[in-house]
Amino acid sequence: MEEETETEEELRTRAERKVKKAAQLLFFRRHRNPGVKGWELKKALGDNYMDVIAVLNSALHRFGMEVKRISKEGEGEGEVEKSEGKEKTERDRFIIVLKNHLIEKASGARIDDVAMLSATLAYIISKQGKVPRKTIEDFLADKFSKHRIYSALDRYIRQGYLGEDDKVLYIGWRTRAEVDRKSLLDLILSA
Hints:
The chain is α+β, with helices and mostly antiparallel strands and 191 residues long. It has helices at 2-27, 38-45, 49-61, 86-91, 111-126, 133-140, 146-159, 173-178, 181-190, and strands at 36-37, 65-70, 78-79, 93-98, 130-132, 162-165, 168-171. It has 2 domains: 2-98, no CATH class; 111-190, MAGE homology domain, winged helix WH2 motif (Arc Repressor Mutant, subunit A). Helix 1 (2-27) packs across helix 3 (49-61). The longest helix is centred in the N-terminal third of the chain and has 26 residues, at 2-27.
C-alpha cells in the first residue's frame, strides 16, 4: 500500500511540473509572436500535452484567463479541446488570453495605435473580411499621417493582427485570438 501512494505522489509531482513548464512556455515570449506551437508543447511536455494544457486552463480560469488554440487558417479557434487530430493541434498556436478585459491598459500600446487598429478591424469586418490595402490607407488618411499609417499597418501584419495577400488585408490569427469582434463592433456603434 505504501508503494502505491509513493507512485501516486510521484505522478502528482510529475504532472505538477508539467503544468508549471506549460505555464512558463505560454507566459514568457521567446519568439516574435506570443504563444507556443503545438509541436513545441509536445516536445517539452510529451504526447499528453493536451491533457496538461487542459489542467493549466482550469487553473488559469480562477485568474480570468484561458488558453486559446488558434490555427493559421482560422479554423478551430477557441477553447482548447482534446478531441482534435494530433497533426492539426501540433500546427496550431496556443496562447494565454484574458477572458474578460477588465484592464484597459493591458496592451501597452499607444491610444492612437489602438484607435488605428480598431478602425481598421471594424472596416475590414464591415466589408465581409477582405479589403484592398490602398482602401484602408485612404480610409485612415483622414485622421493619421501617411507615414504612421504605413508603419502601423506593416507592424499589425508582422504582429499577426492583420494578414495580407496580394495587397489585400484581412483579419489575422492574433485578432481572432485576442479581440472580441462582436464587442468591438458594439462599442463602435454605440459611440
